[in-house]
Structure formats: structure tokens, C-alpha cells
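Hi R.,

As promised, here are both runs. First protein below:
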Amino acid sequence: AQNVDGVYPEVYRILTDDNKIEITEEEREKILSTTLSLYFRTSKFLDAKNKELEDVFAFIERAQQKFGDSDKEMNMYFGDRNYTFKMSDAEETKEQMRLNNKMDFIVGHFGNWQNFIRHKYHSQITVLKVTKEFPLITSDNPVEIYNHKYKTADIFDPNNSIQLALNQEYFLWISPNTQKSDRNIIYRGARDKWFAFTLNFSTHASATDWIIGREDTLAAHVEQHKTYTTAHPEGAEAIESIQSRALGLVEYLDIVEKQGIGSEIAVNKFKELQTSQFFKDDPMVLEMSREMKEKGFI
């Protein structure tokens, strides 16, 4: 309450102020601490563990019904603990296990949260502003961990990036560990409606029970979701555009990571992106082009 919720308004003001570029070490720590806390404090981890527990007991109960003998003593190892009980006492044991799950979740939340803050110590902090045409939504799982190379359950994979919608217009992106940058800078940029559409689609898919936003924003999202995910000409065009952009950017970032932003192969790949129909008038590419011209790369 004091060190996360109490400072979030300050963090929110920093991240949504277009003129705020330089940050102090303390401000950076607050940004990482508050935003990453939103990932670890959701109940999805505890819910998954309790679902696993219910499945185990359902299996045991089916076996007991088949073979009988509810007074037979059973041993179970679950959540790094050993349990000994009789099936006649199964409900009491399961309740104790659920309580232990909750305690493990709370302790694990604090441990993983602090370790993750240290893990992202050198990652680039970027705030992107999207068009008002597609307002952003959020969900009961507001923070997404995204890996642009492969799917992994390892939250500490160095290729993971962190994504979080701050409001209808602003989006926070914390880079993979492979992309280190100036620690005391917030990088800022703009994105188009297809970028916002992709974010909303991903947010919708990762929600457990709720998608969250203003009434008009949610209504607009539902209509956009129907329009652009059905066999509709504009929807097919949107999906093709999103897929092509994602593939092109991943290829470019891989080249930059291996060869450097000023290498001939990276510059040629960027020029290829510039000429692609899918990046025409894209604000991100236009800004990247301006910066690369200033540095003499193109």
C-alpha cells in the first residue's frame, strides 16, 4: 500500500507526460516496482495452483470410489510439502493445502517481484502513444510478458519484454534484457491504429474474467473485434498488415542485435521496411527514420 499503490499516481504522471524524458534512479526504481507488481499480484498464479489441487483430489476420489477403503492412509507431496491423510478427512486436508497455497503465493509474489525488478535493471523503458481511433483497453491480467522469438513459460527469459496499457492512449514497453539502453531515459514514440488493435486483441485473449475500460471504449473494441477478426475484406487486410509488420520488425531487431544498428545489413533491412506498403506513414518508422538520419546511418 505504501511503496506500490501509494506511489503509482506519481509513476503514472511521469509515464504519461510527453515532456518527461530524463528520470532519476529513484524514479526508475518506482516505475519498475509499481508496474511489475501488477503482474505478480494478480490471482492467476494462485488460481492455477488451486485448479491443479482440485484435479489431483478429483483423481484420488475417483480411485477411492473404484477401490474403496476410505480409512486407508494416503501420502501426497504437493507444493513442496508432504501430507498424510485419510480420504474421510480429504476436505479438511484440501482446505489446509489451499491455505498453504495462498501463503506460498504471497511469499512467492514478493520474492519473484523483487528478483524480477533486478532482472530488468538495465532494460529500456519506452512509452508509446497510440491513435485515439482505437482506444486501448486493459484486463484483470494487465501486464503481459511477450517473447518475440519463441513461446516460453520462463518469466526470466532474457528475450522477454513487458507490456502494459497505462490508459486509453499510453502504453508502457520494457525491453528484453538483450536491448540495454540509457537507464535514465524514457524513450517515447507513436504507433498507429493497427498497433493499438493488436494490443487490444492480445489483452482480450489474456484476460481471465474481465476486460476493462470505459463503456464507449469497450463497445468500440467489441465492434472492432467482430469486424477485424471475421471474413471481412478490411479485417483480412488488417490481419495481413499486422502479421507482416510483426515479422518485419522481428527480423530487423534480430539483425540489429547481432550486427549493430549501423551495420550495412541492418540499414538495408530498415530501408526495406520503409518501402513496404505495410509501413507507409507508420509513425514509429518515420520517427526511427528521422533518428537514423540524424546519426548518419541513412
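And here is the second one, sequence first, then its C-alpha cells:
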Amino acid sequence: MNSNLHHLYKIGQKPFRNIIGLMSGTSMDGLDIAYCKITGSGFDTQCELLHFETIPYSEVVKEKISLVFPKKEVSLEDFSLMNAWLGTYHALLILDFLKKNGLSKEDVDLIASHGQTIFHAPKSMHQRQDFPNATLQIGDADHLAVKTGIITLSDFRQKNIAGGGEGAPLAFYGDALLFHSEKEDRILLNIGGIANFTYLPSRELEKALVTDTGPGNTLIDAYVKKHFGKSYDENGLIAQSGNVDSKLLETLKYHPFFKIKPPKSTGQEIFNLGWLKSKLKEIGFEIKCEDVVATLTRFSAETIFDTIQSTINTSESVMIYLSGGGIHNPVLLSHLKDLFKNVKIQSIQVLGMNPDAKEAMLFAVLANQTIMDDAFPLPGYPTLNMGKISFPT
């Protein structure tokens, strides 16, 4: 038997697995590294976060990634080089992370790498009937595995597409295994570059839903970087200094994506600065930069609210648990609380999970499930195991 297969078999026999989950989102702010201890599988899965760090990307790294994202047309040379380079770069970040935390490669059973999305193209966007839903992530896992010496699972989204999904959002699988409750209906709202939520009814889990809602932080971050020279609107101070422009808000919300019935997915391929510029031109008058940020913040909140309200009866007992970078924007949170009124909104921290580490942890859970179980025990969803396996040798 191949020694790597034998090692993988031994990992599956352990009482727990130490798995590193990696997440690099569309905001391109950095790499989330979550070192997790995972026991069980299926609905018996338990995931404990032992170490976590977000390693910020330098401007040089962001410029490199920007060669291939988010663009409809890129150089094949740039794409090929970046796929290999990013896998190697992430490996170096992992090795440094292990050293800082007094760990070695022998302390890690698996790496679960999401990669860096460079293009997301569901049929609702590309409108080419002869072609399926599609998505593409870079950061080659063979480079990760060889450079770290650790078995690596990657490319999780392709199996979801093969099974009839859009490849995003994948949060549902981990959310359902870790957070389904028989005592309350839950909405797990993640506000990253793109916002998405998982709805987990306490009963009839087959009625669960996961969907993107539209921009979360992506437009705010991009606009703030261009006009204020900052990576993001820290503490919502810029939005707080401006006023929401109702005309711009109405124009932003008039987009075909928001008329598509969930589940659906989107990305910066649609919601980017070029699109925003066209909408600013469309309204026909100048708006102060602070007002644009204020309006974009309200836009994110309202599209989250509208999507949830159109699919879920929030007048019933339901709890909203927040995660992602948007949780640190008090203006965005204030808008959400104003819109939802009688629905309780709180950080997912109350359920024992770090809200910043959640996405990286969920990919560690996906890898664990692939190694430990035949399929996801989720009614109404494809019984798929996700993640391609790369061996170190």
C-alpha cells in the first residue's frame, strides 16, 4: 500500500484529528489559519479551536493576486504562475504559524485549504446554457502539501457544483453539523466580502437553506481603499460621518441578482468598483465620498434583510448569529438591528465559536467529514464528500 494512503488510514483511526483550516476571502485582506481539534463526524462532530491567526496580506501580495482577480480576462501566464506561487506562499505562512505556536508538522494531521477565489460564475451570471455553474480557486494544494509535508485537501467547491450546486456558499454543510439545534430556529449570518446566511430550522431540516445575499464588505472596502487610502472602514467611522443617499440606495438595489430566488451566489465579478461607478453616473449628480460609504453600508444591510425576509418567516422564534468581518462594523450592525427590530442578533461567540475564525474552521470540518464519513447526513442536500487530496510525496 502507498505509504500516504496508509498514513491517511491511520489518521482516520485516531480518536481526534488536528486539522488546519485555511480561508482567504474575496476581500483579500489576508489568510485565516485555524488550528482545530476535531472529534467525531456527522452530527457528532465537535470542533475545538486551539490556535487562530489572520495573517494580513502586504500590498505586494495583494497586487500579485490582483493580476488575476477579479477580472474576466487574465493572462494564462499570470494565472499559471499565481496558482503555484500562492500555494507556496500559503505553505510558508503555515510553517511560520506552526513555529510561532510551538508546533511541528507532526502535530497536524491535515490541511484544509479553500484557496483564493479568482472567478465565480453561476449560470445566473454567465447565461450560457451549454455550460454549467462554475467557480475557480487558486493556491495549488500540491505545493502546499509538498512544502509543509502535510496531507492537504483542497478545491472543495467543485464537488458541490458537480452535484448540482453553485459551489457557494458552502457554509451550510459545516453549519448544519455544528450548530443545528432542536430547541430554536437559527440563522447563521456571515458578513464577509460577500454576505451569506444558513437557515437551520429546529425541525424539518430538509427545509434548511443557504444563500448569498449580495455584497457584505467588498464594495465598502474597495471604495474606502480608493478614496480614503484605508483597507476598510474601521469601526464604521467613515459611514458614521456620512448620510445615506436614498436615490443611490434605490439604484444599487435595482439589480437582477436581487430578484433571483434563493439559493443563489455572487461575487466581485458583478459587485465591483466598475459597477458602482456606473451607478453613481446613473443617478446624475455628485455625492460626497462619506455619503457613498454610508449608502454602501446601508445597502449591505438592506439586501441581507430583504433576502432573509423573502425566504424566512422571522416573525416566528428565530435567532440570528453573526460572524465575519462585518461584525466589527457598528454602523452595519446598527442598520441590521434597526431592520430586524424584534429578532435577536448576536455574535456566534455565544455558541462557542470565534466569529473571525468560523469560515476557516468550517473547511477543517469539511476535510474531517471527507476522511471520516461516507457522506453528509443532510436531508435534501447532495450526499457529497468534498475536497481533492494532495499527498506530500
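A quick note on the second one: DSSP finds 14 helices and twelve strands in the chain. Let me know what you think.

Best,
J.
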